[in-house]
Amino acid sequence: MTNQLIIFDTTMRDGEQSPGASMSRDEKVRIGRQLERLRVDVIEAGFAAASDGDFEAVRAVAEAVRESTVCSLARAIERDIRRAGEAIKPAARGRIHTFIATSSIHMEKKLRMTPEQVIENAVAAVKLARQYTDDVEFSAEDAIRSDEDFLCRVFDAVIKAGATTLNVPDTVGYSIPALLGQRISNLIARVPNSDKVIWSTHCHNDLGMAVANSLAAVMGGARQVECTINGLGERAGNAALEEIVMAVRTRQDVFQCDTRIDATQIVPASKLVSQITGYPVQPNKAIVGANAFAHESGIHQDGVLKHRETYEIMRAEDVGWNANRLTLGKLSGRNAFKSKLQDLGIEIASDEALNAAFTRFKTLADKKREIFDEDLYALMSGEAPDAVERFKLIYSKVHSETGEVPLATLTLTVDGKEQRGESSGSGPVDATFKAIEQVANSGTELLLYSVNAITTGTDAQGEVTVRLSKNDRVVNGQGSDCDIVVASAQAYLNALNKLHSKPETAHPQL
Ligand SMILES: [Zn+2]
């Protein structure tokens, strides 16, 4: 057994299935480049057959990323596999990840197939995928609730058909560590030629055990773990990449393996994904939470100052905290700005785009003395060249005074035409949203409103996420500004603009 643990990141496929977390093509390319810097082994960039937009996004990541394998998901049906095969064609290394359900409940109720038909379909899918690439992964969806004898038959058949990675997912987050570890080691012991393939797992966090289950799979012999940045993913999420990587690295004495990950890129990756998807990271989240390395207790602080290892098992800087915090200031020029964006992996399409971004940067630098990496990410994520901008904020004024009812007045452009809205509300943000609705009349429901300070200090930019739903569709809008009422208005309008762009297509779960 090798001592390398393959890290398979599915932030852009499984993570994208969190409500409202869908990513545009350009956003996927930015995340893809960051995952490459993080030295992720395999990047699952999407489900190419879902729509033309999904196909284009996978293809764009395959073109942009050189160092990591780029993968597309495909159901075990011909069209899906052909679309996946086409989408990964430009990749330096491309993988097709095909799957079919193997639990009785899924076979009977969802697929309406007999076990024999499921095996037939799995084999045909793997054989077809092998015509596009030598790197084919097969997943037995809902493997944890599948009969072990049947799983052995399926895996035996797909190894013969040419699968090179076999994934044992806990699709519904039902397993517990001891059982998942046992399941993997049983399969490795029972399936013929199991040593010729890489065994993998993919765990969901419905019972809060995604990371623990994944690590138990590693103990059982799995050498690939599927995971996501910040644990983003369907329902309660997926196994958090940063936790898996740091657990294995910190406890190599136990796991006897390690990853290729450059851990100093973990925090930048976490921030980028949080900013793009609008999913904030809880402060007490392991590794990437704002408090993960903060020692409040005096006894702890004293210990850490005298000898760090008294209370710290990892160093904050090893996972990318405090690296390059201070970035630019008011006096920074256009070239410094440009090269900093390049360092951060932010692509600028044209000179005009650079000029526009530089103007926004100067405006921000006037309000805020020091500009940090996080500010630049926020500044640039406001620019989505492929988003339709139906609504745009031109002007806003909010009156808020003790004992008075807050009042918001604003001017928007709607399809280029100026319109004015005015409303009172229970607070300045409420008044602003009502004034926007007076113009937009969108019929949406507000599901979530959250404000986060991007950096420390009272002059920090506020980053606002607004989640809206309409007719079962959910979108997240983001806005950032030193004025949180303006940031709120921008986030709301960003969400409305997203609702106006092309509807998303249904994606399969795994
Ligand atoms: Zn999943």
UniProtKB/TrEMBL annotation:
**Could you tell me the Gene Ontology terms of the biological process aspect for this record?**
L-leucine biosynthetic process
**Which PROSITE patterns did the record assign?**
AIPM_HOMOCIT_SYNTH_2, PYR_CT
Per UniProt, the enzyme's principal EC class comes to: transferase
Gene3D superfamilies to which the protein is assigned, alphabetical: 1.10.238.260, 3.30.160.270, Aldolase class I
Pfam families from the UniProt entry: HCS_D2, HMGL-like, LeuA_dimer
Q: InterPro entries given for it?
A: 2-IPM_HCS-like, 2-isopropylmalate_synth_dimer, AIPM/Hcit_synth_CS, Aldolase_TIM, LeuA/HCS_post-cat, LeuA_allosteric_dom_sf, LeuA_bact_synth, PYR_CT
Catalysed reactions listed for this entry = 3-methyl-2-oxobutanoate + acetyl-CoA + H2O = (2S)-2-isopropylmalate + CoA + H(+)
Q: What is this protein called?
A: 2-isopropylmalate synthase
Q: Which species does this protein come from?
A: Ferriphaselus amnicola
